[in-house]
Design brief:
The protein is of the alpha/beta class. The chain has a single domain (3-257), classed as UDP-N-acetylmuramoyl-L-alanine:D-glutamate ligase (3-Layer(aba) Sandwich). The protein has helices spanning 3-9, 22-31, 45-51, 67-79, 94-106, 116-123, 140-151, 178-182, 186-197, 204-224, 228-241, 244-254, and strands at residues 12-16, 35-38, 54-58, 84-87, 111-115, 129-130, 133-134, 154-158, 161-165, 170-174, 255-257. The strands form two sheets. The chain has a nine-stranded mixed beta sheet with strand order 2-1-3-4-5-8-9-10-11, sandwiched between helices. A two-stranded antiparallel sheet has the order 6-7. α9 packs across α10, α10 (204-224) packs across α11 and α10 (204-224) crosses α12. The structure holds adenosine-5'-diphosphate, 4-methyl-5-hydroxyethylthiazole phosphate (TZP) and magnesium ion. Residues 18, 20-21, 60-61, 89, 132, 184-188 line the site of 4-methyl-5-hydroxyethylthiazole phosphate. Its cofactor is Mg(2+). It is an enzyme of class 2 (transferase). Substrate binds at residues 38, 185.
Length: 258
Amino acid sequence: MTIKNVRTQSPLVLTYANFVTPQFVANVVNVIGASPLMSREVSEFNDLCQIADAVVINIGTLKANELSDIVTLSKVATNLDKPVILDPVAVAVPFRSKAVQTLMQEGHVDIIRGNAAEIAWFADIDFDSQGIDATGSGDVIAIAQLAAEKTGAIIALSGAKDVISDGHQTAVIETDVPLLSTNVGTGDALSSVIGAFVAESLTVENVTYAMATFKLAGLKASRQITTPGFYSMQLLDELAAITSEEVATFMTESVQYL
Ligand SMILES: Nc1ncnc2c1ncn2[C@@H]1O[C@H](COP(=O)(O)OP(=O)(O)O)[C@@H](O)[C@H]1O
Ligand SMILES: Cc1ncsc1CCOP(=O)(O)O
Ligand SMILES: [Mg+2]
């Protein structure tokens, strides 16, 4: 789905958010022309999944007594044929590892969007991290492909090199924009942006389009603003203004299918 279609169809993205970044995530979803909604109340998941076009589960500040809620959310969404995107924040930390194992075993996830260290955990490969951030280096293409094979999910690995793979088809977007990585919440926002773009159909192409759109907006913002505070505001403005034509040109120049 193109950014133009997102604006005309305005898909509703239901996000089980962490308590750190929901305002930013909601604004990002809003400025691309989609419709944000956050909830953590299990008794309304059925009603909300009926009206949602995609469901995003972020484990950033999950508590033990909420684990069964996210499993339920993933099942309700899947039964209603709505795509489920997992954002596995700092998944290598033991409580989070166990939570994600349970979610994957008892529930269902279609797409996993994380940084290289988070995706490496699914591939069973060591990759240095510091809390929410990936700090190491490695073969991110191999990591994404292996994680896709092991999980059966479409992998959206973000970083200086974004890699999207379902284990068969792999796309790479290589564009360095350091300010994008240092802003807390850009990863969470990207996960919900992916939700908007796969609302119509769950494909590697649509995930790639979402990642490219976000990256291009980040690149354009970095040409206007070089300090972190105003940068996140400029990113919102660039996302609001970005056109299908610009994204198409950027994709021709910067997206490589392997
Ligand atoms: N060094 C980088 N250069 C360019 N883009 C980056 C860089 N690091 C991250 N990004 C972009 O920042 C966004 C958030 O990704 P990331 O920082 O990996 O997620 P998280 O915040 O979950 O760790 C993505 O669009 C990703 O492509
Ligand atoms: C700081 C922090 N702590 C728990 S969740 C979170 C935000 C993570 O945001 P992102 O992964 O988008 O940088
Ligand atoms: Mg993150």
